[in-house]
Input
Amino acid sequence: MKKLIITGLLGISLGGSMLAQQDPLYTQYRNNMLSVNPAYAGSRDALTIGLLHRSQWVGIDGAPTTQTLTIHGPLVNENLGFGFSVVHDKIGPTSSTGLYGDLSGRVKLTSNGYLAGGIKLGLNFFRSNLTDVATGAQGDDAYSQNTSRILPNLGFGVYYYTPKFYLGLSSPKLVQNVLYADDLPSGEVFEVTEKRHYFAIAGVVLELNPNLKFRPSVLARLVEGAPNSLDVTGSFIFADKFWIGGYYRYQESLGILLDYNFTPQLKVGYSYDFTLTELQDYNSGSHEISITYDFIFNDAKKIKSPRYF
Output
């Protein structure tokens, strides 16, 4: 009985993600902004490599897991940037691997402020093993076959930033591909499509004293046919090395974040969050770990202090 209850709750909670195949949600989105906004490519003026792993709702079979690899930096013309990302996401009987390229361009608006625009192009390799799903109904055609598709997509973004402030708007996937379609005995068509995601991000660094800073940030996400989400995050930064903070996703989860700058170029982050929904009694929380490294090939641009965005 307990297993049936958990399975039912998981199905309800994953309804927007598994059936609509929503983009993954990250607690450490601030360490993974290329996945959210292609205009971010090249904004750090370094060749940046980022790795992230997320295990969500640990203890529940079929709960989401996500891995990302991002690479981005400026081109020979420093006002142009490029990016590349791999995102693997598995939720229950569905999985997807996205391969995406990014191109951005920026203009200088103030002495240290830039406005950038970017596009994202790529392919999503989607697979569903629906025959592994036990529905308890005989002849349920909606779960009678597996699906494998290669889905092209494109996205756009704009991003304004200074060394201590940023603001961005984006939609990483504009094409609403059909993931699954089947004719039901009733004559109706059972169809699952990708949904457009719209993101708004903003953040600032506030200097409280020479050795202490505070960095609040927000991320809002709008998805047709799914609950909208709002993330509010704040971190205290000690001596530009150790970051500690908290995070809240509206009516969904609450967590802590830790980051450490081992060098001005190397940053490692960890986060733990627990759900505030009905699933809280059936899992031990969600974990994320991230690694970011900036390669600097021009001594004139050697990093002297950590980058905040």
